[in-house]
């Protein structure tokens, strides 16, 4: 892609995100979401591969439908209440429509069907943007409207997302699809605590984005797209692959790594709110995700090339690891002791 065009699309992506998260009016929020969608489409389809074109088409159709529902929700609320303010969403039909629209944009169950396919058709760095930055504006809209949303509906969608994200990730061999179902599962954790502690939802999103960025940057360094390629990563860059194992376990939420912090706090808050059954259920469902994270870690560090399937090895290996990747890996592993600082 032309560097100037790439700069324009990246700047538009930042602009759309900034407009959405800083707006109080529904039309401005919708405008920012549309700018985001139009900015990411060329980045998805830049390889000109049929799979990439298919992914960009699916992404456009789903996001356009979700944006239409969001605009219709805000218009319905304005028709009945005379308010265009984001925080003044009070009409029941508008609340249901908004929850549906944001769920489609985020990829929450039952509107998750597009997300794994789009990530599979995108490059690693574009998949990182789709899994982290593109989910930030809809998450902020959910936070702003959280007092008006239906707690029971969000609870059901959150548990369904955690269950399906863990269950569907078990039989995948493509790493981008595994990360897509991982994202769906983590969205369930963010949604279940949204009503009771919006600040905790933001902390979970930030730490999830940090850990996911570390994993995608590592996969990009080793040029790894599927499990059979991951099995040969140890012979390329052993230190980076060992760090990848710890980062995957952090994303799974194992103590004493960083990823344990949000799950620990969410379970604690749900217990305080009297939702012990929901806390127990989502904690047990996270074991499904732990299984395929352990499988990824096993393939990356324990399975050596002579014992794995035949795979064409690269004759020239790029062993340069940039500072950003190293910093992200470090933060995604060792932030748990700093949790009192994060929470203040």
UniProtKB/TrEMBL annotation:
Its record classes its membrane topology as:
Multi-pass membrane protein
Q: What is its EC number?
A: 7.1.1.2
Question: NADH:quinone oxidoreductase/Mrp antiporter transmembrane domain: from which residue to which, for each copy?
Answer: 23-288
Where is the protein localized? Mitochondrion inner membrane
Among the GO biological process terms of this entry, one is: mitochondrial electron transport, NADH to ubiquinone
- Every copy of the NADH dehydrogenase subunit 2 C-terminal domain together lies at 290-343
Task: Quickly give the catalysed reaction.
Answer: a ubiquinone + NADH + 5 H(+)(in) = a ubiquinol + NAD(+) + 4 H(+)(out)
Q: Which GO terms describe its molecular function?
A: NADH dehydrogenase (ubiquinone) activity
Instruction: Give yes or no: UniProt keyword Lyase.
Output: no
Q: What class of enzyme is it?
A: translocase
InterPro entries registered for this protein in UniProt: Complex_I_Subunit_2 (IPR050175), NADH_DH_su2_C (IPR010933), NADH_UbQ_OxRdtase_chain2 (IPR003917), ND/Mrp_TM (IPR001750)
Give the transmembrane region(s): 59-79, 91-115, 152-171, 178-197, 203-225, 237-258, 278-300, 321-343
For this protein, the record's Pfam families field holds: NADH_dehy_S2_C (PF06444), Proton_antipo_M (PF00361)
GO cellular component assignments: mitochondrial inner membrane
Q: Which residues form the signal peptide?
A: none
Keyword annotations: Electron transport, Membrane, Mitochondrion, Mitochondrion inner membrane, NAD, Respiratory chain, Translocase, Transmembrane, Transmembrane helix, Transport, Ubiquinone
Superkingdom of source = Eukaryota
The answer to whether UniProt assigns keyword Nucleus to this entry is: no
UniProt function note: Core subunit of the mitochondrial membrane respiratory chain NADH dehydrogenase (Complex I) which catalyzes electron transfer from NADH through the respiratory chain, using ubiquinone as an electron acceptor. Essential for the catalytic activity and assembly of complex I.
Q: Which family does it belong to?
A: Belongs to the complex I subunit 2 family.
Name the record gives this protein = NADH-ubiquinone oxidoreductase chain 2
């Amino acid at each position: 892609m032309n560097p100037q065009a790439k700069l324009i699309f990246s700047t538009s992506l930042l602009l759309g995100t900034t407009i959405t998260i800083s707006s109080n009016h529904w039309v401005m929020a919708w405008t920012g979401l549309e700018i985001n969608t139009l900015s990411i489409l060329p980045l998805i389809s830049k390889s000109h591969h049929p799979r990439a074109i298919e992914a960009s088409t699916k992404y456009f159709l789903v996001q356009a439908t979700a944006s239409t529902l969001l605009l219709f929700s805000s218009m319905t609320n304005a028709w009945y209440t005379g308010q265009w303010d984001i925080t003044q969403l009070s009409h029941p039909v508008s609340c249901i429509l908004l929850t549906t629209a944001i769920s489609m944009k985020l990829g929450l169950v039952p509107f998750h069907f597009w997300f794994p396919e789009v990530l599979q058709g995108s490059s690693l760095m574009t998949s990182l943007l789709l899994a982290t930055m593109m989910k930030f504006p809809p998450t902020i809209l959910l936070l702003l409207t959280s007092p008006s949303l239906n707690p029971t509906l969000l609870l059901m969608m959150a548990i369904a997302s955690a269950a399906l994200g863990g269950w569907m990730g078990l039989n995948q061999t493509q790493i981008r699809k595994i990360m897509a179902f991982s994202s769906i599962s983590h969205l369930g954790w963010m949604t279940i605590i949204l009503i009771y502690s919006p600040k905790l939802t933001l902390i979970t999103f930030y730490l999830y984005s940090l850990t996911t960025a570390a994993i995608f940057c590592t996969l990009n360094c080793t040029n790894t797209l599927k499990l059979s390629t991951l099995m040969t990563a140890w012979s390329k860059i052993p230190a980076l692959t060992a760090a990848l194992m710890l980062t995957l376990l952090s994303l799974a939420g194992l103590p004493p790594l960083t990823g344990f912090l949000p799950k620990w706090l969410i379970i604690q808050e749900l217990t305080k709110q009297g939702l012990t059954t929901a806390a127990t259920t989502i904690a047990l469902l996270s074991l499904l995700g732990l299984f395929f994270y352990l499988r990824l870690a096993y393939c990356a560090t324990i399975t050596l090339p002579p014992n794995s399937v035949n795979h064409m090895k690269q004759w020239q290996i790029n062993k340069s690891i940039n500072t950003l990747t190293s910093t992200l890996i470090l933060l995604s592993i060792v932030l748990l002791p700093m949790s009192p600082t994060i929470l203040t």
